[in-house]
Write a structure and sequence with these properties.
The protein has about 200 residues and is an alpha+beta fold. The protein has 8 helices and 6 strands; from the N terminus they run βααβααβααβααββ. The strands form 2 sheets. A 4-stranded antiparallel beta sheet has the order 2-3-1-4. It has a two-stranded antiparallel sheet with strand order 5-6. The two termini are about 30 Å apart.
Length: about 200
């Protein structure tokens, strides 16, 4: 699964992007998209719109645009919970030892990281900052591998059908590449030995 993360201005100001990312990766999360941006006021207000009626909304927006942030998409088993666990409690004083906020946060507001609190919100927050083609993770790689295999299988089977040969079983097609298939251009003489298709599997 995936979740969304922000490395906040207090952390980027202290050059902690690498240190925070290292803790995320050591917790079993993979960074599948990342970019350093200067959030605009409009972006910050839109992203935190759920808190618009809260008294701290203005200060939160001011803080989030006070310096660069790093927005990231994280991937891993039970990614939302895993990320929340490694971040620690919102108030660093209440956070467990070894968490990001206990280690690096300066205050409740300047607490170094943001993380989605549910799978539903993770999807919304990811789409707020990223297009799908900017995210390259394990699931993307599996999809592409399957697509290539299917295309190769279709090409091999198509060539075999055109040539009238069956030297390669269709089940082996995805892992085989045709070196040469000679199409039958004229009737084969009686008694002639037909040249077999050669293939290489790997």
């Amino acid at each position: 699964t995936r979740t969304f993360s922000i490395i906040k201005p207090d952390a980027t100001r202290r050059n902690l992007t690498g240190a925070v990312t290292k803790m995320l990766e050591e917790a079993g999360l993979r960074v599948v998209a990342s970019k350093r941006i200067q959030m605009t006021r409009e972006q910050a207000e839109g992203f935190y719109a759920v808190h618009k009626e809260r008294p701290f909304f203005g200060e939160l927006v001011d803080f989030m645009i006070s310096g660069p942030v790093v927005v990231q998409v994280l991937e891993g088993e039970d990614a939302v919970k895993r990320n929340r666990d490694v971040m620690g409690a919102t108030n660093p004083a209440d956070a467990d030892e070894g968490t990001i906020r206990k280690t690096y946060a300066e205050s409740i507001e300047a607490n170094s990281v943001h993380g989605s609190d549910s799978d539903e919100n993770a999807k919304i927050e990811i789409e707020f900052f990223f297009n799908e083609d900017e995210i390259v993770g394990c699931s993307s790689r599996r999809t592409m591998t399957g697509l290539v295999a299917a295309m190769r299988r279709g090409l091999v089977v198509s060539r075999l059908r055109r040539s009238g040969r069956s030297a390669i079983d269709a089940r082996d097609a995805p892992r085989c590449s045709i070196v040469r298939i000679r199409a039958r251009s004229r009737p084969v003489r009686r008694g002639a030995v037909r040249s077999p298709a050669r293939h290489r599997c790997g």
